[in-house]
Amino acid sequence: MLIAADIGGTKTVLGIFTRDKGPCTPIFDKTYTSNSFSSFEDIVAEFITAAGVKPDKGIFAVSGPVLGVEARPTNLPWSVGIRKLRNRFNISSVRLINDIAAMAYAVPALDNDDFHSLNEGVETADGMRAVIAPGTGLGEAFFHKVRGRIKVYASEGGHADFPPTDELTWSLTQHLEEKYHHVSCEQVCSGKGIVNIYKFLRDAGYCEEPEWLKSELSHARDKSTVIIQTCNDLTRQNELTSTTLELFMSLLGAEAGNMALKVMATGGIYLGGGIPRRIVPALAAGPFMKAFAAKGRFSDMMSRIPVRIILNEKAALIGTARIGLGLS
């Protein structure tokens, strides 16, 4: 009886899994708002009570670096510790894993319907593959097959320096330096990145903010969701949110292309996280693929790399369960 969790900056998803049912079919699962709890242990306690079972093993995917027996989610104010979980819930075995690495482990277990192709490309069977996942933050990982088994490498590449490439992105970087001092890719290629871009375009005078939108955002808990929903609604589209989304997609495409070059991801790039699933038509028609392939002398090679969106919102939980059940 395995308890598995995908701990994200916005939501945490838990499930109870058995070998008989497999990693794609939890016998019980539930989603919680992460920052509504003062600790991860409190979420686990509530979940175990709701599930009505006692798990034997636990494996937990954390949205941040996993370097030992304790990990701190990058965008949450609490930690996840192996000893605390093992002792409080009397679980014999507890393991931590990076959440995007877990998503990578899920890719081989997903069906064709769990993906939307942005670029069919030409897949290299033994080539490296990579996952880039914009959600609350920006997660990255890469993987390939070794003697028939998947080998996954976690990464914190989302926190590498953001590279401005033109006058607009230089202005954006200078704008963000005043707030963050260090400007990372996550600060433009994520949910909070969408909000950062929106505020920059508004404050720098590139686009005017409608009064009704200003009012709506002032009361919104998740401003990036409001911006995306406005772009998806033909009756509410406006220059500021449309320009925000266009710039976000271009910057995300460029970063995905950078990652593809760094690990030679000729096996494919997979877009995970909550944001790509919500803007599939915009990604397909917008500047993402143009920015992805715009790599000078390597543009032709980039155009042949498959790019797919992961549509299954529980991919990281499935990957976590695969590892916990010994199926990865």
Written description of the protein model:
With 328 residues, the protein is an alpha/beta fold. The chain folds into two domains: 2-105 and 314-324, ATPase, nucleotide binding domain (Nucleotidyltransferase, domain 5); 111-311, Hexokinase, domain 1, CATH 3.40.367.20. It has 13 helices and 13 strands. It has helices at 40-51, 82-89, 99-106, 167-180, 191-203, 211-218, 223-232, 239-263, 274-278, 280-285, 288-293, 299-303, 315-324, and strands at 2-7, 11-17, 28-33, 57-62, 70-71, 80-81, 93-98, 115-119, 129-134, 138-146, 149-155, 268-271, 307-310. A hairpin with a 3-residue loop joins strand 9 (129-134) and strand 10. The two termini are 17 Å apart.
Describe the structure concisely for a colleague.
The protein is of the alpha/beta class and 328 residues long. Helices cover 40% and strands 21% of the residues.
Name the overall outline.
globular
Order of helices and strands: EEEHEEEHEHEEEEHHHHHEHHHHEH
Q: Please bin the fraction of helical residues.
A: 25-40%
Mean pLDDT: 95
CATH 2nd-level architecture of the largest domain: 3-Layer(aba) Sandwich
CATH class of the largest domain: Alpha Beta
The computed structural class is: alpha/beta
Counted by DSSP, the helix tally is 13
Name the poorly predicted regions.
none
Number of strands: 13
Gap between N and C termini: 17 Å
As an assembly, this protein is single chain
Total domains, how many?
2
CATH topology of the largest domain: Hexokinase, domain 1
